[in-house]
Structures are given as C-alpha cells and as structure tokens.
Automatic annotation (TrEMBL), chain A:
It holds the Pfam family Tfb4. It is found in: Nucleus. The keyword DNA repair applies. Component of the general transcription and DNA repair factor IIH (TFIIH) core complex, which is involved in general and transcription-coupled nucleotide excision repair (NER) of damaged DNA and, when complexed to CAK, in RNA transcription by RNA polymerase II. In NER, TFIIH acts by opening DNA around the lesion to allow the excision of the damaged oligonucleotide and its replacement by a new DNA fragment. In transcription, TFIIH has an essential role in transcription initiation. Keywords: DNA damage, DNA repair, Metal-binding, Nucleus, Transcription, Transcription regulation, Zinc, Zinc-finger. This is General transcription and DNA repair factor IIH subunit TFB4.
TrEMBL record, chain B:
Keywords: DNA damage, DNA repair, Metal-binding, Nucleus, Transcription, Transcription regulation, Zinc, Zinc-finger. This is General transcription factor IIH subunit. Residues 84-272 form the VWFA domain. Belongs to the GTF2H2 family. Residues 363-409 form the RING-type domain. Residues 1-25 are annotated as: Disordered. It comes from Brassica cretica (Mustard). One of its GO terms (molecular function) is zinc ion binding. NCBIfam families: ssl1 (TIGR00622). CDD domains: vWA_transcription_factor_IIH_type. PANTHER family: GENERAL TRANSCRIPTION FACTOR IIH SUBUNIT 2, GENERAL TRANSCRIPTION FACTOR IIH SUBUNIT 2-RELATED.
Amino acid sequence: MATVASKLYSDDGSLLVLLLDTNPLFWSNTSTTFSQFLSHVLAFLNAVLGLNQLNQVVVIATGYCSCDYIYDSSLTLSGNSESGRTGMPALFASFLEKLEDFIVKDEELIKEQEHDERIASSLLSGSLSMALCYIQRVFRSGHLHPQPRILCLQGSPDGPEQYVAVMNSIFSAQRLMVPIDSCYIGTQNSAFLQQASYITGGVHHAPKQLDGLFQFLTTIFATDLHTRSFVQLPKPVGVDFRASCFCHKKTIDMGYVCSVCLSIFCEHHKKCSTCGSVFGQSKLDGASTVSEKKRKAPDS
Amino acid sequence: MSNQRKRPNGEREEDDEEDDAEGIGQWERAYVDDRSWEALQEDESGLLRPIDTSAIYHAQYRRRLRMLSAAAAGTRIQKGLIRYLYIVIDFSRAAAETDFRPSRMAIMAKHVEAFIREFFDQNPLSQIGLVSIKNGIAHTLTDLGGSPESHIQALMGKLEAAGDSSLQNALELVHEHLNQIPSYGHREVLILYSALSTSDPGDIMETIQKCKKSRLRCSVIGLSAEMFICKHLCQETGGLYSVAVDEVHLKDLLLEHAPPPPAIAEFAISNLIKMGFPQRAAEGSMAICSCHKEVKIGAGYTCPRCKARVCELPTECTICGLTLVSSPHLARSYHHLFPIAPFDEVPTLASSNDPRRKVGKSCFGCQQSLLGAGNKPGPCVTCRKCKHYFCLDCDIYIHESLHNCPGCESTHRPKSVSLMEE
C-alpha cells in the first residue's frame, strides 16, 4: 500500500539519508554527551517524518572502524508490531537497539587493533559511499521516487587518508545531483564537509553551541529541496580547499603536483610514488627564477 | 551491422542479398539482427516470462571492465593528464554535404560541443584551442583555454562551409601555437576532416616531420573515406586514425579521445610543479583582487603564499607567480590513479555451502536483498579485499561512477597499508 501511494505523489516527498557520527573517541571528550545529542537527532528525525507522510529517513552510522545501516523508515512501516521494549515510541525502538549493537561492535573493533593514531577520524568515506549506493537503488526503482539528499552530522576531524575516497564520493553525488548537506559539530573546521556541500550544492553549517542543535537542524536541514529556496539559510563562510598530500597524508595548502598523474606531495621527491615517473629538476628552478624575475620587474 | 545502416539505398540492397532483405524497412533491420524473439522463455505453465536483460547487461559490463583492467595492468598507470589539445575542424566545401543529417558541419559542431564538455570533465588543468579550415586557410577560432563555454560559443558562431581544405596550413598554424607550451604538457591535435583532398602551399611531408619533431600527437577522424596522407600523419606522430561510418560512430570515435592517453615517456618530460590550493573567501566579503585591480564584493580566492586575492581558478598568482588550482579540480582525475579491482562473481551453486553467505543476505551497498526468486541465492559479486557481497547494480555503479568500494572504505585500515604501497 505504502509503496503505491509514494509512487503517485512522491514529487514532494524527500528521502533523507542521515550519516550519524558515532565515533567513541570523539564523543568521549565533548561537553555534550552522546545521549543528549541523540535526543536532538531523534526529535529531528521525527519532525522530518512528520512533515510529510511520504518522507523517508535512512540512518547510517559512521563509526571509527565500521559503518552500518541503523534505521530505514520504509522497512519499519510494515513490521510495526514489536513496540517499545525500552519504553520508547515504537518507531525508534529498533533504531536504538541497532545503534547500541553497532556501537558495541565498533568499540570491540577498536580494541582489536590498537593503534596510537593522532587523528580520531570517522569513516566518512565509507558511509558516504553506502548512502550513494542506497540512493542509486532508489533511482533504479522507477520514475517516481522521493527526492534524495544526504545530511552528514559529523563531529570528528577529517581523516586525510580518506581524501581520494571522499572526493570520489562527492563527484559521484554531484553527477547524481544529490546535495550533501553537512552540519559540523566538532571544534575544528572540516574541509571535507565544506567542499562536499559546496560542490554538490548543499548547505554547510557549523553551529557554535550544541544546546540548540534541534533548532539548527529543523530550521536549516528539515525542509525539502523545493521549499529550501524560500528559506533564509546561513551564508556560506568560505570553503577550505586544502588537499591531502599522498606521501604523508598531511593536509596542505601548498605543495608539489606531479605533471603526469597530478598526485600531490608535500615535499620534493625524485620519483613519483604513484605513477613512477622520474622528475627533472628543471621546472622547479625555472619556476623560482620566473617568480623572481616577476618580482624584480616592477621595482626596476 | 551498424555500418550498413546509414549507407545510401542502392548500395545497401546489394550488400544484403543473402538476407531476405527486399521488403524489410530500415526500422526493422535492427530487430532482424538482434533476433530478440529467440530469447523468449516460457515458464512451467507455458506463459511467457519477461526477458531478464540485466544478466546480459551485466555480462557485457564485466567484459568491458576486464578489458580495461587488463590494459591497465600492462601499462603502469601513467597518464598524460595535463593536455594541450587543438581541435581542427574542416569547414571546407565538403563539410556542407548532407550524408550526415542535417549536414556534416552541424553534426561535427554538435558532437565537438559534447566532446569539449566531456574533455574538461576528465582532464582537469588541460586546455583546448579551436582551429577551422576554410577556403584553404586555417583560422584560429579560440586560443588555448580552459573554459568550455567560450570555445563552444566561438564554434557555434562560425557555422558555414566554403572552399578547399588544407591540411598543411592547419598543421603549420597549430604547430606554431603548440610549440610555446611548457614541456610537461602533452601536445595533441585532433583533426575532424571531411574533405577528400588537401591543397597545400608546400611540401606537407616536411610539415609532418616538423610536427613529429615537436612531439605533436596528431589524430584524425575522417568523415568521408580513408586518405593516405591522414593515415601517414597519424602513424608518424603516434596518433589514431579512424573514419566514421555514421553519426553514432562519429560520436564514439570523438569521445574515445576524451580520457587521457597513456603517457609516453618521451612525449613529455615529467616534472613536479609547485602549486597552491587557495581557500575560497566568504560570500559578501570585500577585497581588492590582484588580477583586475578592482574592489570586488563576493567570493574570491586567497593565494596561500602571498595572501593576494584572485578572482578565478586555475590561474597564476600575479604577485608571487605560484600556480593556483582548486584541489577538487585535481581530485576529479584521481580515480584513474587508484582504480578499484573488479569484483569476483560468486558462483550461485557453491554459495549455498559457503558459511559466510548466510551473513550476506543483502547487498552491502544498498541493502537490497540478494535472494532471487523463490529464496534461492541470486547473482551477486564480492570484493576481494573486504569480502563483502554486492548486487549487480551496485557493482556497476561502484565501478563506473563511484570508484570506491563501500566495504573497503568502511573498514579501518592501518596507516601503513595505504596508497603508498600500491
């Protein structure tokens, strides 16, 4: 029944794929606890589902060691029988159960491979790829489907080693015309999310305080894409276009680019580690002399 | 079979004598070749089953993928990504012929437009210039540049054909332009030639040798018939020569030139180029840009070395001379460098014994059930690295558009096993 109805009127229904950052390494040292955060998010999801009966919500958890589907509102519609073991509304009982399972599993995986890594980044590339696969499936299902968009709720810092994969996902989303909205709740800036939203035409926002997160979420990210054009959205505050170098996985704003394969390096190498071409020294010197000439020219 | 479709009527009937072709209309021909009725199947009760084309489609795709990966394995992934390409379009008398409808000229323009867009999508940092041949003289339509719109505009404004064609004049002009570009760039010429002759002021063989010496890679797509001089030119300079039989073929031939060609070491000297990745300033911020020396309100980019403001990317900073590019521009081509391995097909029979199979009842990417009709395991594929299962549709999407394996991306890899090793 539900599927027939959604096929007929799906033009203003939207599919929201929410990527939820569950990275325990991030949530263990924030001022807001994960449960507070979760109550904002659950209220937001309820609001989205309440806005339009054709709206669909899919939640994918972005962990430190794994990613998984947590909740799909199109599936729970049919199996409505098992209501709150936990005393929660039936809609989200399964959500919380699955989320708990996921986090426990994820933490076990972290313990398995103890690495003293500096950056506690989440696997954004994985959850983005999964979200795009899901959306691709929705596109396959027929002409009339809810309009998809992705919302990243990210707190942990970017993992420079995911640079290529994240960029690949962003370009694929751009080709599918799926906007990636992003709400960054961490302390630093996220270059990945800024670029993702900029390239795909989504909205990026980094709220200063997390107390009113629900309000930020509903006023900026709840409306469907058509309504969005009438809403006063926060002005973009610039885009961080820095890239990650291939050799040390550092985020850099200036670097060396191989002319054959366009790999980015943070320091001068003799040989390109990606494509194997051997570099001459000439251009490097040439460039510096050119710039010196240019600098001298206006003086003289 | 597609070769026969577009030929004039008289010729076609002679070709197809062995067929029972006399009364067959053009539109039927496609179906005769397909023999689609032979693929029909009946189920137990004698009803016709809908034809499942997805399996065939997927098999085709796998063949293509295998071919690509085999080619990639042979040559190390070394591609000339910084290309300087001149497109030479022959607008001589022959371009007005109407064997391509509405005319060769219109068809060329239409597909060159599509090609230019595709080219810039696949080759960031590359540049295109346009040259036309008319009345025996080569004209520069646009200089080398990176903006597709300006090229397309210039091309569409000049659609008329007249006079003879001259290959030599075109080559001389292009050679003059391309000789000035930096040594790390790949110099390429793509000629769309519709005439069957060339009227040259001098010895064209000398010009060809000159192009060879300057390492110009010349490719020709003919619209009428094969010509010796074109073939010779392509052989000498290492380009491709092909003749289009119909419109679809022409489009395919053109788009073949869009992906970066394998770099040949001697063609361009590889170099490390120092580049900056400027940040985009906030909307509505005010600054004086260094390129126009004007006060501009709105987004601009800031050079990371000298903090000067520039309006557009890619460019060279006017103050410190640093090459400024937008990093997403570069990243667009990275899937060429780190292709994901093709997935293995899971044999449907053996899979029922596989204990892992019970875990993977649904596609890891899209959660679609992998069970076919009657709860039998349907066709699926698996990634060699992460051992997750994927449905056929996701397989195609992952390899053709996404270029990421969702399974591998959602497992945490230790730092040592990253890109450096590959």
